[in-house]
Amino acid sequence: MAQQELVSVLVISYNSERYIIETLDSIKNQTYERIQLVLSDDGSRDQTMKIAEEWIQKNGKRFESVKTHINEVNRGIPNNANQGLLLCEGSYIKLIAADDILREECIQKNLDICEKNHWDIVFSRMEAFNSKGVVGEMPFPLDFFELSAGEQYQRLLNDNILNAPTAFYKKKLIMDMEGFDENYIYMEDYPMWLKMLRNGVKFYGLNEITVNYRRNESSVTSNQNDKFVSVGYFKTCKRFFYQKKFGPMIANRCYRSLMSNLKEFLYKDLIIIFGNKKDSRATVKLTKLFYH
């Protein structure tokens, strides 16, 4: 069991006062000892940082070091993550949203398999839960990790099938990629993953559950209003598609996925034009027209 390497656990938060204690406790309770705790907050308007700072006062000695960063205004997840990365001192980095939970052996198991096999990035299985309990295990594409980096790139171009909350990175790899792309504020993981694969970095899988993912209640990512389409996220995805994916998808002959994306964009554009309400007559009719 590896115990020499320092691992930085980077918590990214935004209005996470309801859940951040659970997240921090899950980091404190890791079986692996050598952990640096880094907390980067994206300008929360609630008591997230006050609660976190009080927790750190009581529990900070468990970690080799604790560092925090607070954005004065909300700048989006990629910027928030990049600010936290600048504070990370470990050889490895584990990112976690401030409402998810690491299982007790998460760090140890990820580190052991990376050190043993000289892997720079690994994904694992995760279980989703909400306020009512366990929702179920999320899909885990074991066959994806048997592919070459080039084959993985083509597969990921078609569909983002990876469990982002489980990603465990060698710090050098993220820094070589120049961190998260801040041009796409709602898509911190996916653009960087495609960049890694384009550069020949193969992804690996750990066939164990290491993370409990809070579903539909995440203060970092969820859309909590009556809109059917999250307009900001949709516009970011659409722009990323035309700027970064369209050409490579043509080159890699991903025609079916290409047409599926274009169909989805048209569908959501029309939803927005007709009011963008979850239960409106227009939304129901358009959904039946496109997908039934």
Description:
This protein is an alpha/beta fold. It folds into two domains: 208 residues, Spore Coat Polysaccharide Biosynthesis Protein SpsA, Chain A (Alpha-Beta Complex); 61 residues, no CATH class. Helices cover 40% and strands 20% of the residues. Strands 1, 2, 3, 4, 5, 6, 7, 8 and 9 form a nine-stranded mixed β-sheet that branches. α1 links the parallel β1 and β2. α8 packs antiparallel against α9. The longest helix has 21 residues.
* Beta-strand percent range: 15-25%
Count of individual domains: 2
Order of helices and strands, N to C? EHEHEHEEHEEHEHHEHHH
CATH architecture of the largest domain: Alpha-Beta Complex
Poorly predicted regions: 218-224
- Can you tell me the CATH superfamily of the largest domain? Spore Coat Polysaccharide Biosynthesis Protein SpsA, Chain A
What's the number of extended β-strand segments? 9
What structural class should be given to the helix and strand makeup? alpha/beta
Main β-sheet description: 9 strands, mixed
Overall shape: it is globular
> What's the pLDDT, averaged over the residues?
94
| H/I helix tally | 10
Radius of gyration: 20 Å
CATH topology of the largest domain: Spore Coat Polysaccharide Biosynthesis Protein SpsA, Chain A
Helical residue percent? 40-55%
Distance between the terminal alpha carbons, to the nearest Å? 52 Å
CATH structural class of the largest domain? Alpha Beta
Organism: Roseburia inulinivorans
Domain Glycosyltransferase 2-like: 8-138
Keywords: Transferase
InterPro entries: Glyco_trans_2-like (IPR001173), Nucleotide-diphossugar_trans (IPR029044)
